[in-house]
Here is the input.
Amino acid sequence: MELWHLPILVAGGFVCGVLNALAGGGSFVTLPLLLMMGLPPQVANATNRLAIVLQCAGGLVTYQRARVIPWSHVLSLSIPMVLGSLAGAYAAAYLHEEIFTKVMAVLFAAMIVTIFIDPKRWEREHGVGRIRLRLYPIFFLMGAYGGFLQAGVGTLVISVLVLLGGYDVVRGNALKFALALIFTLAAVALFAGAGQVRWGTGLVLAAGSTLGGVIGARLVITKGRRWVRILVILAALAAIAKLLLKG
Here is the structure.
């Protein structure tokens, strides 16, 4: 890492943090950035997780102060997501991405359709949410994708929580941050064990993403609902384009 990389990493991390707090897709900024700086794909994929971990921790502090984190669902949903994350992170070292990313592109497209079916769900306030057992396989698969690639998983999680789980946007985002922190920590542990994490680069990136996560969380709490739906759609479209081009 050269000296001129530092401000670029901090700025890229900040953009990633804000995007992930609002709608997801921030890793579509930081992953290409790490690749441009010469990190091998597997190392970039692993190093990017440090920014996600600290960004989620910073955002959670903001959500906790506003008392909107539904802690009762964090533990139960983190179990399938952590299991999925470990499976996905393990597979990242051995499986080819092409088929997996194309399947995810189809899922993002289906998600956009569901957003337009009932857009008022994204404007609801005080949605406490009910997580049914039949949704657990979906959370396992989202955890697997998060462990495998990470980029865009936040968009999937917030969409499932709002559209299928009944949460409002603010509580859904708070729960998304808590789940992302837990299952990403599991993936980081696995990648670190494989020697694929560049700690110095990752921590510089994380400095910017932590600040971005805090500011983004405040925007969600204060500005909230309708425009977050629009950002989710834009993030999903960007994810589809990136996944298909990558595949």
About this structure: The chain is about 80% helix and 0% strand. The mean pLDDT is 78. The CA atoms of residues 131 and 165 lie 5 Å apart. The radius of gyration is 16 Å.
